[in-house]
Write a structure and sequence with these properties.
The radius of gyration is 24 Å and the shape is elongated. The chain has a two-stranded antiparallel sheet. Helix 2 crosses helix 5 and helix 4 crosses helix 5. It has 5 helices and 2 strands; from the N terminus they run ααββααα. By secondary structure, the protein is mainly α. It folds into 2 domains: 34 residues; 83 residues, Orthogonal Bundle (Cytochrome Bc1 Complex, Chain D, domain 2), CATH 1.10.760.
Length: 143
């Protein structure tokens, strides 16, 4: 079968492939532009959410946790923690109640001594993250 792959076949594959992927690129770009306004959440980013993100960064929560899959794998995913624990109040209570001593082998979370205002802010941030359309990530409630 040597010589079966002719120059014209190579040319057709090149032009055909180029056209196919060019139109695929256009179709996906069009889809992105259609989706964008539905996913634009900027109006939900209140000053409280911004302050909560500041706490998230300055206390290095991501050094132990993941947020929508990004971060460290020492502790649970927090992108959906408000849904998992049921409410912002439960999240605040959890953060305040740590660490829990005396359970051998259990990973433990430090106490951050956050004020009530800071707890409201971090909870608002986590609630905001929970409402982002992340195409169902994480795939289950456990994270
Ligand atoms: C030193 C590592 C570490 C850091 C830093 C850390 N955590 Fe944690 N966190 C953990 C561990 C470990 C657990 C699970 C502990 C447990 O269940 O007792 C946890 C659990 C949680 C939970 C409950 C998750 C669930 O599914 O039950 C929340 C909410 C939480 N952390 C919030 C935070 C926030 C907010 C910050 C930053 C202010 C933070 N964590 C920083 C280690 C950490």
């Amino acid at each position: 079968m040597s010589g079966a792959f002719s120059k014209s076949m190579a040319r057709n594959i090149f032009f055909g492939g180029t056209a196919f992927f060019f139109f695929l690129f256009l179709a996906l770009s069009f889809d992105t532009i259609q989706q964008y306004p539905k996913r634009d959440m900027r109006q939900n980013i209140t000053p409280q959410v911004v302050a909560g993100k500041h706490i998230w960064e300055t206390r290095n929560c991501i050094g132990c946790h993941t947020l929508m899959g990004e971060g460290a794998y020492f502790a649970p995913e927090l992108g959906n923690v408000v849904a998992r624990l049921g409410s912002k109040e439960a999240v605040k209570a959890f953060i305040q109640s740590r660490p829990v001593a005396g359970i051998p082998g259990r990973r433990s979370m430090p106490q951050f001594n956050l004020t009530d205002k800071e707890l409201d802010e971090i909870a608002a941030f986590l609630e905001h993250v929970n409402t982002i359309n992340s195409a169902n990530w994480p795939p289950n409630i456990q994270g």
